[in-house]
Records
---
Amino acid sequence: MCGIVAYIGQRPAKPLLLEGLKRLEYRGYDSAGIAVINGKLNVARSVGRVSMLEEKLEGLKGFEGSLGLCHTRWATHGAVTEHNAHPHRDDRHGIAVVHNGIIENYAALKTWLQERGHVFSSQTDTEVIAMLVSELYEGDLEKAVQAALREVTGAYAIAVVCEKEPDVLVVARKGSPLLVGVGNGEFIVASDAAAIISHTQQAFMLDDYNVVKLTRTEFKTTDIHNTPVTPKVQQLELDLEQIELGSYPHFMLKEIFEQPKSLRACMSGRMDTREGRVVLGGLNTFAKELTRARRVILTAQGTALHAAMIGRYLIEDLAKLPAQTEYASEFRYRNPVIEEGTVVVAVSQSGETADTLAALMEAKERGALALGVINVVGSSIARETDAGVYLRVGPEIGVASTKAFTGQVAVASLIGLFLARRRMMSAGDCADYLRAMETIPEKIEKILEQAPKIKRITEKYVERENWLFLGRGYNYPTALEGALKLKEISYIHAEGMPAAEMKHGPIALINEGMPAVFIANKGRQYEKVMSNIQEVRSRGGHVIAVATEGDEHIAKYVQDVMYIPDIPEPLSPMLAVVPLQLMAYYAAVARGHDVDKPRNLAKSVTVE
Ligand code: F6R
């Protein structure tokens, strides 16, 4: 999604801003722009990559100042054009604005501003902020921004500069993340810590309705009514190494290979195998409510929803508690019935997904206990929950979610076991599951050793435009996830579904050589999956199976096998998904796509 970087300090702003924008490229965008105050306001924008903006800037003068802001835009209001790219400017006072989020009342504000003689050059909601700040400007940028934001409804993270105040940068937030990095005689503001970390580790996060006025030496925080606020400057928990590629060609591959490490971090200290106990400090305050819970609703979007589905199976199966999953976007508007004793769990890597946040708020309003399974610490969803469990898998830069998925499944599994233990599961049974969970990182390492073989298998089928992903039970969501991964980055059409569902229509698609990936590990429904495999084979489909190590039998019935180590079935998705992640990656590379910048996608979707 859109990215913001702004700078005020002693150093030339331009290189620093462009470096920051490159660190935010992973979030997905379609145009970029920069504004620097150097005596007067200078703005440059371009459609396409940050490198194209850089090329454009090479021939331009006036960008030498040490105060500026920049932006990557992911189009929502208005097409992908230079006019619609940020920064948006007003020429009466030389004001420039960058904005993430959506201004909901922009149409009414636009009409009002047009009546006052403002001429708009874009179709965006953001230009309204620039004009509104200008309309209300009486020689004090901070006051004008506060006044403008009192008129605005919607979500925003904004940064504003004015050529009449060359020593002032004003930033504000409601609903969209924004951090201020506190350096030595300088401040770097960004929508994501990745753009700050190479300059300083000291930062504070804005709360909703905070407005921060930054000069080169100090900052002052208020709310939109000018009431003083004291932010808490903290150490950023992020290493440069975590957000750099190192020796990997793509972040996606790096993160797939990081999974043994990220899962160790995720599970560390949370499993007491001696006592057969799950230790989730974040949930302690609500232990009583959780013991008495009558229903669990897990809500999320995309990959996070697939992880939630696995959590649902586990909670039902092991804790014997009614559980359901809901697309957050549907749940919110369905007028859902929330009975007493309902626990809602929002699952999200970014913690900023607009639909998931809205669903959580809706459930909270209706009386549910709101829990979060979130990766990004301090994110909007994390702040709104009553309690939660962080993934601790480190920053995920690849647009296609991989290590966050296995982290989400691990945490959902721990929550399932936590609930099961509080209900009827014995300490011994719980200890068995926890011991099995402990083996997952090393088992993933074994799967990763097969990467060259998985690459060869993928390349055999990479020209095919339609694929099926099929699984049952715990690995039905894994099939959905395999299909989503392939679609997102290789642009191959793939459908995931319960293996039994195929006979009810999709089987008509199967023709000679069509790839069908089956998750056919050992489990309760193994024989049934084998029958489904036969159904595909007898219609000419080519079956690629994910099977349990030692299952030589399956090789006779399928074209290709990718083996995963044995593990209790409820935990098997964390292993079965890994070959599917690798297949998606190798398919995209073979097709020549930019794996880390897939077309049309944004890393975090902050619009509904
Ligand atoms: C797919 C993917 C998306 C996200 C979805 C929710 O690889 O990354 O489907 O899972 O947009 O995002 P979060 O988890 O940030 O709420």
---
Amino acid sequence: MIEVKNLVKRYGSHLAVDHLNFRVEDGQIYGFLGPNGAGKSTTMNIMTGYIGATEGEVLIDGHDILSEPEEAKKCIGYLPEIPPLYTDMKVEEYLRFVAELKKIEKEKREACIQHAIEMTGLASVSGRLIRNLSKGFRQRVGLAQAVMGMPKIIILDEPTVGLDPKQIIEIRDLIRGLAKEHTVILSSHILSEVSEVCDHIMIISHGKLVASDTPENLTKMMDTSHRMELLIKGDGQQIRRVTDSMEEIVSVEMKNGEEEGTMAVTLNLQEHADIRERLFYAFAEARCPILMMTSSRVSLEDVFMELTADDKKARMEMEAAADQEEGTEKIAVPQAENGSGEEAPEENADDTIKGEQ
Ligand code: ADP
Ligand code: MG
């Protein structure tokens, strides 16, 4: 289990992680979802002990990542945004090197390496130079180094960025497979990516956790919450009397309208409820004129957009990514341009090796 308590990371005056609190239980796939620059990589780098936090603590199975790094790190396998691959090594050679780094006992090393190769489907390329592998296979090598030594928790930072649709599906299946034996946390800036594979979604925006639930609950909440916005002339009590009389209304939020004597009212309705006409007559009878009435359906996408809306640029990027995903064209998800000063790797456009399917 991972506990993140009151985590803060400042870069100068910039607050990249803003008092994050969450808990990760064993045996599930968690999705860390948020636009570019939201603070996902920073949080993951702190959780895995790569960088220090400004405030707060991270406990991995009860071990503090700072004061007991060895015990804590043993529980975690990490695939950072930029996989730490030595491209001049062959796959098996690199994994042997990783096994040594992870201090896996000599007698167990070979079995561990073979298990990692098997789990990530690398058998056919185990003798090849990493530099000659496609991005999809390199990502598998990154995954293999993360699972090496069978840590309880696997943390993957944007594991499908830059892959083509076929590779994305393969890596997704692989991640689902990993979850049988590990707790998995993965990050993404694409909603569908996370809702596809994760049991639990944490939405992060500007370093803050803005939602945390199962995709089912998030979707259910949105699907059933059919909302209506009204501007009504009248006082709160009169309005409440009308809304209380209709059982289709699940909840009511009210605040003073901009014009004096008016109230801005948001109604959350049961699914399929259409009470527009009844509202009209009921408010007329109560002598509270409706000045404005609109209804809207909220989707998971809307909620994600709303929760993370203040970053317009990120929003546009996500829309572009989602559009690309809908089509059958090759996806070229843009590398994170987060101005972090950590430059993205230059991918050689035609690095796909021949005959590798
Ligand atoms: P994400 O992974 O969600 O795209 P990051 O964690 O990479 O977001 O970045 C969060 C914020 O912190 C961004 O605004 C980014 O510019 C900033 N940031 C990240 N790393 C650094 C750094 N080393 N120095 C200064 N600012 C940084
Ligand atoms: Mg990132």
